[in-house]
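Quick question, first post here. What does this chain look like in 3D?
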Amino acid sequence: MEINNEFHLDSKWLIDPKHLFVGPRIGEGAHAKVYEGKYKNQTVAIKIVHRGDTPEEIAKREGRFAREVSMLSRVQHKNLVKFIGACNVPVMVIVTELLLGGSLRKFLVNLRPRGLETRVAVSYALDIARAMECLHSHRIIHRDLKPENLILTADHKTVKLVDFGLAREESVTEMMTAETGTYRWMAPELYSTVTLRHGEKKHYNHKVDSYSFAIVLWELIHNRLPFEGMSNLQAAYAAAFKNVRPSAEDIPEDLALIVTSCWKEDPNARPNFSQIVQMLLHYLSTISPPEHMIPSRMFSSENKVLPPESPGTSSLMAMHNDTGDKPDENIQESRGCLFCFHHCF
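> Answer (accepted):
Ran it through. Tokens below.
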């Protein structure tokens, strides 16, 4: 069902902008920026969504924001980023826990040319599958499962899924818009029949996430970009119209079976995430644990501390004027979120 664009949120999730302070930027997407910051003395991640410039853009992004907030507030799981709250005035803001391990994409790139130990790769995959199992149990399709949307904890032992910006609630009768995630990881049925006009509807279901999971799992196993040598669009064309997939020849047989079953052309033939979790657990039980399960940290977090020279750090601490005196506390309180936002944009 399509959620109403109007913003409705239980008061326990409503962020008070006066207590929100924005620090350095740590990520950026097409329509939003993510900052490290503080909320009531808690270090958090702050996603600030740009409303758009035209009435059509504003309506679309407000609708997406309302859906994302609704889903985040309803679904809690150890492998989903912890939702802290949101507000839509003066700007649209989503506040979550801050994960210091960086994205899975960045982690894998920094690890190259080395790869993950198989047990670690499967352990990460299990975290992802459990997050997806939880989402699907709430009839939520993510639609944008890829390494950029998977974040590691500081100790690099746990993976959490973030960014519900393209997520949709699934119903039996619904046909969904052809708005999509990233082509290289997308299921062919999202775009394969014909090129859809903007806003046109087509059928698909939660099995699109199973396909994306297969591509991510292949990437975890090999630590290489899937469909190497192809652009995103070339990879999408090959997958959809030629049924091309990355090679599974160098993958252990039981693990290869999981990968290849998840990226089958027929969505109905792909396993659901409850089945995927069980297959991964079974595979883990067949391999002996190595001496060191988790790889040593390949890079340090850029966001552990906020040094004095960090952009936006002044928003997080009592600012000083030219004379070195602290500003009046009442002025500091009244500036709050708005003061920071004016500096961020």
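The helical segments are 55-74, 104-111, 118-137, 207-222, 232-241, 253-262, 273-286, 329-344.
The first helix runs from residue 55 to 74.
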